Amino acid sequence: MSTGSPGNWAEAAKIAVDRWGSTIPIRGAISGPFSMASKLIAHDDLIMGCIINPDGIKELLSLCTQTAILYANAFLSAGAQVIVFDSFVVPPMLSPELYSEIVLPFHKELFGFLKQNGREAQSHTGYLSASGKCATGQYYSSP
Known about the structure:
Blueprint: H1 5-20, E1 27-31, H2 33-40, H3 43-52, H4 54-77, E2 81-86, H5 96-116, E3 121-125
């Protein structure tokens, strides 16, 4: 296997797809942008940053979204489905208003990428459902 986590996981997914992909769905799990950001800075600081430094948090979420897209692309290239876990963005930790303003644009970008690449993705977040409806009652769609 190649070095680096995305390569290792993608190679493992490719092996699984080749062996069992015709009989069972093979999925690669990735962290969503907010959960990834919460691994880089303390979760409490991330939440407070949404209020006192939203532009800085948006920069961080942009970086995390691009990283998530790299991981997702590796899984898609291996023939696997993608499941996105962004469980650190849950009500009541982040209000629907802050979610819509700060996080939703990055979810749109990530899920838009997956949709553009012809793959359906499953999402496990506090705000998004499989229908694409978030807790604010808004729907997201790919760009």
